[in-house]
Amino acid sequence: MFLARFHTAEVSPELRFAAWHEMTSKALIGTVVSTDDVDDFTAAVGVLDLGAVQISVVAYPALRAARTIRLIRRSDPGRLYVTIPLRGRLGVSHLGREADVGTGHFVVIDTSRPGVVVNRRPVEHLIVEVPRSELPRSWAMGSVMARPLPVGQGTGALMVNTARQMMRSAEAYGPADGRRLATVVIDLVVVALAGHAGEDGAVRDAGQRLLQPRILDFIEKRLPDLTLSPSVVAAAHNISVRYLQLLFREQGMTVTGWIRERRLERCRRDLRDPELAGRPVHAIGARWGFPDPTAFSRAFKQAFGVSPGDYRRGHL
């Protein structure tokens, strides 16, 4: 997982358009681009690569970008672009359709098929890229491709808001977060598209898959709470404890074991933090749900093979 940002102000004026085109062709997809603003080209792009999924925010002046058969033959990533204007409008010519897409709507583009995107005024838009293979093969995608689809207040809005929040908080994610976040984004895209494609079964399946990331987030935010337990987690999500345990069992873990693992990981992080060097070891354990120093020391050593004190001395 990595985050990359680029603004044309970083290079001299005569190189800005060429640098931006090169950056976007590598980070996004290859297109033939033309603009009347070559001499005064101001644009920016931010890309969050989660592995299977990529989220981007791009802003640029009026231009025309064409995805040609020649470029597709040269490089075909087999992905869908879910594009949401945040400012301005996009004119999309794709799959024999013409779509005028503004804020409050999104449009789906197949990178394996030719198309043209035009904006006559400056625009900023969010792009969520997902592998075409992640969508059910049985779907009749023709009903959703290259059409302005309303974001609305439901799953479409959730998809957009989640993707924007991931971009804003990208620096806070660790290397291991990419895969989990990618799964969340794919499920949100599936749910958002399923309603327009008339696939109610996919909505239910994706909704079930989205439950576990919400549960994990709930646990993560409440690790210091000594009352955190399977029953508390289940009640917060309106499910039974038995069903909660089943969700975790499918991933090869238990609810209690996951809570314990995450608490110990937070303790380990604090023990190697120089700014917390003056805080007693037992206080760090108590902060993350281990009020008994002896039990904390035993659990930490069992998990990491060394006592909390020895771990701190070896990492500060």
Automatic annotation (TrEMBL):
This is Helix-turn-helix domain-containing protein. InterPro entries: AraC-bd_2, AraC_XylS_family_regulators, Homeodomain-like_sf, HTH_AraC, Tscrpt_reg_AraC-type_HTH. The keyword DNA-binding applies. The lineage of its organism: Bacteria, Bacillati, Actinomycetota, Actinomycetes, Streptosporangiales. It comes from Sphaerisporangium aureirubrum. Keywords: DNA-binding, Transcription, Transcription regulation. PANTHER family: ARAC SUBFAMILY, HTH-TYPE TRANSCRIPTIONAL ACTIVATOR RHAS-RELATED. Residues 213-314 form the HTH araC/xylS-type domain. It comes from the Bacteria.
